[in-house]
Amino acid sequence: MPTRVVSLIDLLVHELRTPLTVAIGSLRQVGALPDPVQQAAAARALRSCERLEGLTAQMREWTRLEESPPDAGPVSLAGVLTEAATSASAMRAGEVPVVAGSVPDVMVRAVPHLLPGALASLLGAVVRAADHGEAIAIEFALAADTVTVVAWRPGVARPDHAETFEAEWLGGLGFSMPLARAVIAGGGGTVASTQSADGRLQAVSVRLAVARPSPPR
Fold it and tell me: Residue 30: which domain range?
C-alpha cells in the first residue's frame, strides 16, 4: 500500500478518535436520564458512534497488516475454528447456527491472535447472507500442504468451483472482510467465494497452509 495512503488513513483515524470519544461519553450520560424517549434516542446514537469507532480501529489494523504483516506461526485449527463459529453465529443472535463437521487435528500457519477474528468475519459473511433458521455447514478438505475450510449454505446448491473473493466489501461488515483476507494471506493462505443466482453470498472457501515442524538444527 502506498505510503501516502497509509499516512492519510492514520490521520483520518487520529482525527476521528477524539470527537468520537467525547460523543460516546456524552451519549452514555444522556442514556442514564429517566425519560425513555431520550434513552432510546441516545441508545441509537451511541450504537452508531460505537460502530464508527470500531470501523476506525479496523481501518488502522488493516493498513498495519498491509504495510507490515506480522510473523505467522503454528496455530491449532480446531481451537480457533470453534471460537470463530461461535462468534459468527452470534452475529444473527443464534438464529443462523454454524455447524462444523469433524475438524482435522492439524496445525496451520497464521497469526495466532488474529486468525479467530478473521475466520469469524468470513463465516459471518455467509451467516448474514442466510435466511432465518438456515444453518451454515462447515466442511474440510485436507491435502499434503493445505487444509481448506468451506462454509456454505446447504439450502443452496453446493458450489463446484471457486472464484476470486468478490465479496471483499460488504455493506454492514466494514473493513472486517479485507482485514480477514489480509490475515489469511499473512499465513500463506487464500480466500475464495461463490454467489448464488440471487446475488447473495453462497459460500466462502479458506485455504490455509499446514504448519510443518521446523527441521532440527
Answer: 3-67
